[in-house]
Amino acid sequence: MVRFDEAVPAVLGLMKKIPTLHARMREVCLVRDMAGAITVILPDQLLDRKEVERLAKRLHTCLGGYSPGQGRILLEHSDLIDKADILDSPQRLQIADEEAFLIDRLLTNQEWLVKPVVENLPLPTAAAFSIKGGVGRSTALAAWAWGLARQGRRVLVVDLDLEAPGIASLLLDELPGFGLVDWLVESLANQADAALLDDMLRESPLNQECTGGIQVIPAYGNKTLDYVAKLGRIHVSAMDGKGESLGLAERLVALLQTVAIRHASPEVVLLDARAGLHDIGAAALSQLPTEVFLFARDDQQTWEAYGHLFQHLQRSRCVEWGMRKKDLRWRFNMVAAQTGGSESDYKRAISKSYKVWSDYLYDAPSQDGTTLNMQEFQEFEEHAPHFPIPIYLETLLAKKNFLDPAQKPPWEVVERAFGRFITEATSRLPGFQEKSD
Question: CA 293, 137, 165, 171 torsion: positive or negative?
């Protein structure tokens, strides 16, 4: 019996036994459907008819439950109804350490590996992501917004954690009429506009003590109805008036474009993405060219989970040997969340981060040992993507409320925990420079 993890290697192994195929594996594409069944696509007349029939029989017998049937397991280009759906698919990615290609038909998490839908966003934009919840991601983003507003900056915070909203409650004492979920749904009907945006924005009470200001777009507003019904539609794709696809990422770009042309538009946008391996995370990290801050608490479960994500991202169209300028990895910044106060605590987090990056996402010597043009980093190299920005545990912040005068922490306490994060994260935003208080 062949298991899911063994199916692709088994198919490649059988094909490599045929000299004609072995020499032309770059022309081979495997398509794996949502149930895991694999169909092999070959150029026309690469094999004669008898060879095709023999190979189809062997593949069908080998794959067992992961075969779509002997008559469908091996197809040629002329058998395809739409060749472009295979040959030009954005999901057509080279298999790691192989010459052949694979298209994975997924119900969700399809978008982690594609290129951003635009080259540049209209405003400097950061996205905060965590592989697990409970690491203080939303609190850190709220503190960052507060710190920037104290410096005289205009900041927009957007709650992308639609299935577990939270950051709005840290920054607002009253919701606006509508929220992000309303924009995403109205976009499907081409009805998301500046008037809707105006009813999605709310000023933070923290602005009263700041020379700048914070605006927030929450997940939902006080007029939002049928939230669960809307939530079930956020991943639906539609067509705009020009016939262009409107997926989740495209609708977020349209939101930022509408924000950018408003009077007194923000100088920076902070997106609070949801935790976990989810399509919302894919939109914020991969499909939008954001500066990404990956929050990690130093525990085994966190590093194992990041290992799974990084292993998947190896296949991204934006991850290339040598880490050129547009490589996805340059936009990633690790954050050592809830770090203890000792130097050894921080060094341990650095080492764990370096190991998972080295094991799964940094360039590694090729099978023949080639290292030419390979991008290499040292473990304690401060400007490397793996080197985390620390956020320190601060007991005086426990159960504090940024908005309640009776529970509001002094800025000095906030700065002890988040000061270095605010400074370094701000310095890493392209086209945006930090001001002093």
Answer: negative
Say how far apart CA 413 and CA 419 lie, in whole Å: 9
Report which of 68, 84, 75, 67 is spatially closest to residue 46, judged by C-alpha positions. 75
Q: What H or E segment, with its residue span, contains residue 79? A: none
Among residues 417, 408, 424, 429, the alpha carbon closest in space to that of 170 is found at 408
How many residues make up the chain in this entry? 437
Whole-number average pLDDT of the chain? 90
Pick the more confident residue, 45 or 350.
350
Q: What is the mean pLDDT of residues 195-202?
A: 96
pLDDT at res. 204: 97
* Structure confidence at residue 262 (pLDDT): 87
Average pLDDT, integer, range 409-427: 94
Distance (Å, whole) CA 103 – CA 8: 11
Q: What is the pTM of this model?
A: 0.82
Q: Which residue has the higher pLDDT, 98 or 201?
A: 201
Which residues touch 247 (CB under 8 Å, ≥6 apart)?
A: 111, 117, 235, 237, 283, 287
Phi, psi of 339 (to 5 degrees): -80, 140
Say how far apart CA 249 and CA 196 lie, in whole Å: 19
Is the pLDDT confidence value at 393 over 90?
no
* Contact indicator for 31, 86 with CB cutoff of 8 Å: yes
Residue 340 has pLDDT above 70, yes or no: yes
- Six-digit token pair at 302? 């966190």
Pure H helices in 237-322? 248-260, 279-282, 300-313
Distance of CA 39 to the CA centre of its chain: 28
278 or 253, which is more confident: 253
Distance CA 29, CA 86 (A): 8
Instruction: Give the whole-angstrom CA distance, residue 236 versus residue 219.
Output: 17
Strand order in the sheet with 389-392: 202-203, 213-217, 154-160, 268-273, 125-130, 291-296, 332-339, 389-392
